[in-house]
Amino acid sequence: MRILLDNFTKKFGDLTVIDQMNLEIRDGEMLALLGGSGCGKSTTLFSICGIHKINGGRILFGDRDVTNTTSQERKVGVVFQSFALYPHMTVEKNIGFPLKLRKDSRAEIARKVAEIAEMVHITELLQRRPGELSGGQQQRVALARALIRRPDVLLLDEPLANLDAALRLEMRSEIRRIQRETGITAVLVTHDQVEAMSMADRIAIMDAGKILQVAEPREMYENPVSDYVAGFLGSPPISFLKGKIEGGDFVEASTGTKIPVAARVAASHAGQAVRIGVRPEHFQPGGKAPIAGRVSFIEVQGRETLYDVSLPDGTVLRSIQGGDQQARIGDEVTWGINADRILVFDEQGWKI
Question: What does pTM read for this prediction?
């Protein structure tokens, strides 16, 4: 089911949270709405769901205008951060509750509950109550309940926020598996960029009620439209260096280090102040554009080690490296930046 937000506007009183947003979610894809707290992503989700009545524009499911219809009429399944299960009911009754409200027969409810329970791998839990389940099991129950009505759209509001790290990893792949198996169109709201990049076909990154960029995860990571987008994606995060374009090079402000830039950037921004973005995997020992600094932080992450290298003005470059530890805190190092992979941004923060 294709979803179209056409000049979608949402206000709370005199406060305009979303102003004339346009977004198309393709049939059968999972799209992640990614952004910080207060950016408008949950408001967008609840408006698609029908919980919020919009103040302008249209919402289309396929060719059907659902702007003024109820949540029930929109045929959406919603999974909330809190799971929202009924504690006094068994898993079986929790999952089947939407069908009971619809007045399906007992036999039909039992058949569909068994079918969806098998899909989400909780068949053996049907007679338990939510209080007897782990967080991951409760999330599977909530997912099953959202899917049992065979909705046209699945809406996921921070579905993994209350799970521990190991369960988040497991449920990321499980939700993605189920979404692909069913072919349902899904919208995922999250502030976690790893979640968005690992689960979604495309990401729409939001800030202050506006969509800054919509792209596939790899495309957005490698070609962000702005320094905000570049800083939101990537773990460990990107580092930024200030400087100027002079004679075909970026000249870093505190060390005078010269890093070659593309000819079009050198021509269009000669003499201008810019910032470059350097991903941790592109700042390594032996790189072609060496820059000197002092190791100020080390975090061993098992097979990889994260280093912070501080420059004279306090700017920090991050490096993620495999193998044996290359340095200790306090060491003076000269590691290189991969000039072919730097991102250059103008003074307004837009990618050049």
Answer: 0.90
